[in-house]
């Protein structure tokens, strides 16, 4: 175990981006800063400043600490003690990936503290472990890798063949079957540098579990087909070079339409839904960020950003955010400030 503290800076993320439900994610240049130090004496000290201060637990229940523990378990051992300091800027409970930031910061810090950690827990294994903690990969993928990510899960070809494999009977005598070992994967893409995002952050929160509970178990085939086409279009609109600003804005507007989740959730965030309608009527590619209630509008230049900011409701926070070219675990592309710095 390394003696010195490590500092990790996970970015905010926006999932779904309209049509890419549980698949698309975008890293945004708004970062928490986490300093973790392994101590020779037993004990845990957690300090939180900024977002979440006074609200989050300061013990083993803290999500970042749970991620640290999972990372150390994967690496073969726990340190005797830990000191954790969090300086949070990412809003909590607003759909900007605060939980994924905590998970990815904890796992990355554990890897950085362990001798040879990157050899045991490489970037692919880090993503898979983050997904197991979070439950879905759409936020953790961009939080780790930066840029635009398309994430998915599939049965692990190197894992146990669990489908249909019976376990021992449970205490009641029933034979149960193991779930498939679903491994997370992600493809990282680079949006063109002209694309930025305006985040409209309301004062109220919405729990992800509540938002997911509003979704139906089944959707019409035509709606699934609609989203498949719009997701493909959005990928091109974000990454294709050589488009004029006007043309790209039109493609982003068309590519961010959705029929799978936002309509079902609108009643739980009526102010967000109203703002989206207003922004889209003015030509902005606006959608619910993740599970909400934050609204994100993709822009293609400073004049678009300035115009979008003018639609912010009076009691909402508004931020103009560039795409984060690097994530918690590094990544290609430009980024404002250091991604990770080690303090000797």
Automatic annotation (TrEMBL):
High-level lineage: Bacteria, Bacillati, Actinomycetota, Actinomycetes, Catenulisporales
Primary localization class, coarse: cytoplasm
Ranges where the GHMP kinase N-terminal domain occurs: 63-147
Could you tell me the gene encoding this protein? thrB
Binding-site residues for ATP, renumbered to this chain: 91-101
Q: Which UniProt keywords apply?
A: Amino-acid biosynthesis, ATP-binding, Cytoplasm, Kinase, Nucleotide-binding, Threonine biosynthesis, Transferase
Q: Provide the catalytic activity annotation.
A: L-homoserine + ATP = O-phospho-L-homoserine + ADP + H(+)
Pfam families in the cross-refs: GHMP_kinases_C, GHMP_kinases_N
Give a GO biological-process term. Answer: threonine biosynthetic process
EC main class here is: transferase
Family of this protein: Belongs to the GHMP kinase family. Homoserine kinase subfamily.
Q: Does the keyword field hold Amino-acid biosynthesis?
A: yes
Please give the name of this protein: Homoserine kinase
**Where's the GHMP kinase C-terminal domain?**
250-299
Its EC number(s): 2.7.1.39
């Amino acid at each position: 175990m390394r003696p010195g503290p490590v500092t990790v800076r996970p970015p905010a993320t926006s999932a779904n981006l309209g049509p890419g439900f549980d698949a698309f994610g975008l890293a945004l240049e708004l970062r928490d800063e986490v300093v973790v130090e392994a101590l020779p004496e037993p004990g845990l000290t957690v300090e939180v400043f900024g977002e979440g201060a006074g609200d989050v637990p300061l013990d083993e229940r803290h999500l970042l600490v749970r991620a640290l523990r999972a990372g150390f378990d994967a690496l073969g051992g726990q340190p005797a003690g830990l000191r954790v300091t969090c300086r949070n800027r990412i809003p909590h409970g607003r759909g900007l990936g605060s939980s994924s930031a905590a998970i990815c910061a904890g796992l990355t810090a554990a890897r950085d503290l362990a001798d040879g950690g990157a050899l045991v827990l490489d970037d692919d294994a880090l993503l898979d472990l983050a997904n197991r903690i979070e439950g879905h990969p759409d936020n953790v993928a961009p939080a780790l890798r930066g840029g635009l990510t398309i994430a998915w899960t599939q049965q692990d070809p190197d894992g146990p063949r669990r489908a249909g494999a019976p376990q021992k009977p449970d205490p009641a005598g029933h034979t149960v079957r193991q779930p498939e070992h679903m491994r997370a994967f992600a493809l990282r893409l680079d949006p063109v540098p002209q694309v930025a995002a305006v985040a409209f952050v309301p004062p109220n929160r919405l729990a992800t579990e509540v938002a997911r509970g509003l979704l139906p178990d089944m959707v019409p085939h035509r709606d699934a087909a609609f989203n498949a086409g719009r997701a493909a279009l959005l990928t091109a609109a974000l990454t294709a070079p050589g488009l004029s600003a006007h043309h790209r804005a039109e493609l982003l507007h068309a590519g961010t339409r959705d029929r799978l989740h936002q309509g079902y959730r609108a009643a739980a965030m009526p102010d967000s839904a109203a703002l989206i309608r207003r922004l889209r009527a003015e030509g902005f590619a606006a959608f619910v960020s993740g599970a909400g209630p934050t609204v994100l509008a993709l822009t293609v230049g400073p004049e678009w950003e300035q115009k979008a900011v003018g639609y912010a409701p009076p009691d909402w926070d508004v931020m103009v955010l560039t795409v984060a070219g690097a994530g918690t675990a590094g990544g290609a592309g430009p980024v404002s400030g250091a991604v990770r710095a080690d303090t000797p």
